[in-house]
Write a structure and sequence with these properties.
The protein has one domain (2-140): 3-Layer(aba) Sandwich (Rossmann fold). The protein is globular and about 45 Å long. It has a two-stranded parallel ribbon. Strands 3-4 form a two-stranded antiparallel ribbon. The longest helix has 31 residues, at 110-140. Helix 1 crosses helix 5 (110-140). It contains 5 helices and 4 strands, in the order H-H-H-E-H-E-E-E-H. By secondary structure, the chain is mostly helical.
């Protein structure tokens, strides 16, 4: 869901967006709930296939946005050289009065849980895009 939302919201910024997980099922598709939520927003996720994060993915990425503190800490432990690229998604938005919370895990929570995730990601994506735009502007100076 995060991949689709960031790709759509950052379309005018010409961002290259992809996703990977620390415990992903290789070759899986997006959940039906994710696809429905994205479709309601006019966002497609064609060609999406889940994959495990690895050293090559991190090396080729300028920024990596993690859904939870556990994901962030796991990647920092496994790939300490990439630590400067790693960020928590919700560090870029205040949600329910908290900055830096985890994106909730919707699995097993039904459609409403996926809607909550979409709401959290919507708010965080605006902050992430602002961050990426300011990073780009600084590098162009």
């Amino acid at each position: 869901m995060a991949e689709g939302l960031l790709r759509a919201k950052g379309q005018s910024d010409s961002l290259a967006v992809s996703s990977a997980g620390i415990a992903a099922y290789e070759g899986g598709g997006a959940s039906a709930e994710t696809l429905e939520i994205l479709q309601e927003r006019g966002i497609g996720l064609e060609g999406f296939v889940s994959r495990m994060v690895d050293e090559q993915i991190l090396a080729e990425s300028s920024h990596v946005f993690c859904m939870t503190k556990y994901h962030l800490e796991s990647l920092e432990d496994r790939y300490p050289r990439e630590k400067g690229k790693l960020h928590l998604v919700c560090d870029f938005a205040e949600i329910d009065g908290v900055v830096g919370r985890d994106v909730p895990d919707p699995i097993g929570g039904g459609f409403r849980a996926y809607e909550e995730v979409a709401s959290v990601l919507d708010r965080a994506m605006e902050g992430i895009l602002g961050f990426l735009r300011s990073e780009r502007a600084r590098s162009e100076e």
